Amino acid sequence: MTEYVGAIDQGTTSSRFILFDRTGEIVSVAQKEHKQIYPKPGWVEHDPVEIWRNTAEVIAGALEQKGLSQTDLAGVGITNQRETTILWDRRSGEPLYNAMVWQDTRVDERVAAYARNGGQDRFRAQTGLPLASYFSALKLQWILDNVPDARAKAESGDAIFGTIDTWVLWNLTGGIDGGLHATDVTNASRTQLMGLASLDWDDSLLDAFNIPRAVLPKIVSSSEVYGSAQLKALRDVPVAGILGDQQAALVGQTCFSEGEVKNTYGTGCFLLMNIGTKPRESTAGLITTVAYQLGSEPARYSLEGSIAITGALVQWLRDNLGIIETSSDVERLAREAGDNGDVYFVPAFSGLYAPHWKESARGVIVGLTRYANRNHIARAVLEATAYQTREVLEAMEKDSGIAIKELRADGGMVANEFLMQFQSDILDVPVVRPKISETTALGAAYAAGLAVGYWSSAEELRRNWAEDKRWVSGMEEKERSELYASWQKAVTRSFDWISAG
Questions:
Q1: What is the DSSP letter of 37?
Q2: Sheet containing 45-46: which strands, arranged edge to edge?
Q3: Tens-digit pLDDT string for the chain (501 aa)
Q4: Which residue in 107, 207, 324, 443 has the fewest CB atoms around it within 10 Å?
Q5: 88 vs 442: CA distance, rounded Å
Q6: Cα separation, 69 vs 438, whole angstroms
Q7: Cβ contact 219:194 at 8 Å
Q8: CA 238/CA 157 separation, integer angstroms
Q9: Cβ pair 384, 417 in contact under 8 A
Q10: What's 292-353 look like in SS3?
Q11: Are 271 and 313 in contact (CB under 8 A)?
């Protein structure tokens, strides 16, 4: 009898393979970082070949740790950094260009040009998304327009497009030897090319963005058997689940009921609320997106607030400024500060996402005096995550009409006790960390496990969820209001640094 389900978790900074048992406990994990490529200011790229090579290595590594083989696995799921865009040659398997990462802002001028004809919400009714550099359509358009022969190859079907899930699936199931060219509804909903209600590529959107249909993958559900892995370490294991990383965390947190909310603290920060089987257009600066679709069941939708820079700001503090040696040092420095020194850090490195959607914003540090030191900078870095989360939470409550009573938190930053306590303080609601914090990979495993019958139902998955720790606010309302008012003032200082094209 097969004992485990595997999850490929291909993130913005690393690739992981995690094995889970029936209770959702982690059995084995292997991880490897990949290079971040910054050719120009605002340009962010990854090497797709490196990503696939690392993915294959961590799959083998996680199995070897426990002396396991493919026969021990019931299935494997994929979860991935969303919107990141790849175009590759169907025959050679070679990318025509580096992966354009979701954070990349080189298409800002294209965003502005489209917005001049119909406004920033020109495609929101069809896609649930505002015009922004964040999504895949304009990234793919840029590659087609700027890489020699890319458009001709795309129109003939010799070059094919995918977000990271599609690239991993194609390579995992054979690559140039019959690899599957598909994406699930959650990732397709982030391209700005899929109709949110139809769950299919929309001809009017393809025409508007000048994208040939021949380049696009097949859209499938988030939980079904797509095919079998051909990679040696996973030979013949069913590949049966795909979810964009934030939707995977929603599933991993078992937020299967309307009104349930989770926040993932990773490279960016992403707050999602399950809103049921009918999409709802946001009026408060949020995204409407597909939450998941389990097999033939109706798709579920969510409101989402996306924050571009949270955990990445800690990395920036480490790698660009050298203020800390390891990411974990930031908590110690923040505590040593004693207070924030009236220092606020607005990390609009790629513009501001929800609820502002200001492409022309850029990062600022405000409130500096001779009193401020590196401890205050470190504290401002962590507090920025909590303030941005509050902005999104308030927009979500406005859109949904639901007052959020607690926040389920997951992702790498939930290990930071200072941040979790400050998050509860500034929200004035409890913040809850689950026993299994790797909910993104767990969600992909759940999707795959449901498809192959390893788990029987969503209710069985709910029984796996357990609370690890709860933080409750201890801050007075006067202090909370004053801090948040100062943050809001700081945010306005980041506006309009870049002139729109």
A1: B
A2: 45-46, 99-100, 85-89, 159-163
A3: 568 999 999 998 899 999 999 999 999 999 999 999 999 988 999 999 999 999 999 999 999 999 999 999 999 999 999 999 999 999 999 999 999 999 899 999 999 999 999 898 899 999 999 898 889 999 999 999 999 999 999 999 999 999 999 999 999 999 999 999 999 999 999 999 999 999 999 999 999 999 999 999 999 999 999 999 999 999 999 999 999 999 999 999 999 988 888 998 888 888 999 999 999 888 888 889 999 999 999 999 999 988 888 888 899 999 999 999 888 899 999 999 999 999 999 999 888 887 888 888 999 999 999 999 999 999 999 999 999 999 999 998 888 888 888 899 988 899 999 999 999 999 999 999 998 878 999 999 999 999 999 999 998 999 988 899 999 999 999 999 999 999 999 999 999 898 754
A4: 207
A5: 29
A6: 23
A7: yes
A8: 27
A9: no
A10: ECCCCCCCEEEEEEEECCCHHHHHHHHHCCCCCCCCCHHHHHHHHHCCCCCCEEECCECEEC
A11: no
Residue 427 is encoded by which pair of tokens? 């929200």
Tokens found for residue 59: 């799959």
Q: List Cβ<8 Å contacts ≥24 apart for 176-183.
A: 176/90, 176/91, 176/92, 176/93, 177/230, 180/226, 180/227, 180/239, 181/90, 181/217, 181/218, 182/217, 182/218, 182/219, 182/220, 182/226, 182/242, 183/217, 183/218, 183/219, 183/220, 183/242
Give me the amino acid identity at 268.
Answer: G
